[in-house]
Amino acid sequence: MQILQHHKRKISGFTLIELLIVIVILGSVGTIVAIILINSLRTSSKTDILNVIKNNGDFALSQIAQHVRYSQSVTCQSLPASPQLTVNDFNGTQTVYSCSGSSLIDTIMNGTTTTTPTPETLLDTNSVAVVANSCNFICTQPTSTSNAFVQILFSLQTTNTGTLQEQTAPPQRFSTSVTLRNVSR
Fold first, then answer.
1. Domain count, the chain
2. C-alpha dist (Å) from residue 70 to 52, 96, 101, 104
3. pLDDT tens digits, residue range 96-113?
């Protein structure tokens, strides 16, 4: 009878080695899962930052390009490039695009008003900024009978100055060339 009771105690539980092996396996799986989650969150954060930069740059570029494309005339330097572009509409409105500090500004001036125009930024200045000395406009007209075209160039970077790698992004370059369609000759 003693032999039977001793045998029942032996098979009723786990050994210390079995418990340690399970703990090591669960700890390893938990560590791998935590690393995967942390990396995906870091990647997501960096992607969000790059998307904000891209959306701001694309918006500013499309607004300027569309306005230039359907304008009556434009004024800027050819070479060297200028940080300012003046666009004249058919209705007498003049818009000046300029790089002011870390922002891209448009100032609309109507020839009939005497009020001081209020500059408006084309960017979300809380999240992006123009890289210093990267904003240029180049106007070119090969011949007096050909259509003028304007090159628009600028770089944007995030204004978040986080110390972690995933909170920063390299500056993104934006550029396009626009040909005026409504040229008055």
1. 1
2. 28, 15, 28, 20
3. 888 877 777 778 776 655
